[in-house]
Amino acid sequence: MEKICLSSFxxxxxxxxxxxxxxxxxxxxxxxxxxxxxxxxxxxxxxMYSTYPIIREYLTxxxxxxxxxxxxxxxxxxxxxxxxxxxxxxxxxxxxxKVADDFVFNSPAQLKKYGQRAKxxxxxxxxxxxxxxxxxxxxxxxxxxxPGSRLxxxxxxxxxxxxxxxxxxxxxxxxxxxxxxLKTTAAAFEEKFGKYLHGLKWVNFGGGHHITRPDYDIExxxxxxxxxxxTYGVQVYLEPGEAxxxxxxxxxxxVLETLHNGMDIAILDTSAACHMPDVLEMPYxxxxxxxxxxxxxxxxxxxxxxxxLAGDIIGDYSFDVxxxxxxxxxxxxxxxxxxxxxxxxxxxxLPSIVWRDKDGQGWxxxxxxxxxxxxxx
Length: 377
Prior knowledge:
The protein is an alpha/beta fold. It has 10 helices and 17 strands.
């Protein structure tokens, strides 16, 4: 990595802070120490592999949603490599057998098709189940228990004849939630599927646990883990993504221009559509340092990106002083679901990736250019 001066480095760029990352990891490690559970990094939320040497000091391994993530975890993280896919492809499955330690299947049909091959290769085999217990409101796009969900096997579709193939059961139903929702979901899972855990080796509670959030109830999490551990004699796994890097990352951007059309508008050098798509998909309002809600402070602006998409809007924010060209803005909590989702729509340059070490020194991890846009077309 190349040493850089953060105050003069060109925007836009993602910045990940080592001390904040380690603080989160210490919280996760304490849960493991207290309960004996194993925690995996969910790479779908954060795949900045230059940080893997640090993360593996605290966590057991990684979980992947397909071949490329599995190879990344195997090659750069080590430890246990787990993989889940709603449906595996034959050629990719053959390659996955070389890098993954644990396979989770989405349906009895997928388990029948691939399960024995995984067992013959001495891999751990699991089935994802759907406890049909939705604890989310208004975010069906992220709710695996929503009506008509394609994720997980319901009790009505569970095939007991396949139990000899199984080492464990997996459920993942949460998104940015507290442990009370885990407790509710775990009870529904236990009511429907608990009888099958006897004789199995593990149970995986999936992700969506905001364990490192200040108001997260860790004691309830510990009690749920201990209950399953002691009742069924299984190894408990968690696979958070966001909790690993919660408020450990930033997006630093600059104001390109300000204008007025019924309200004040600022055009930034970062794009919601290209660099933080959850703003449009979820929708999500990223926190912005030293700003307020619209109307809360003296000057309110609609912040938008430089693409041709009319809806490339990050949101309305207020400030103590008017914005002007060249001003730097710092969006917070920008490590999760950002770098893994960026795109080059409109030929937009990808933001650089920067690391800030414990001493406050900035290091350039990756810078992108025209060739990165060209190589994708």
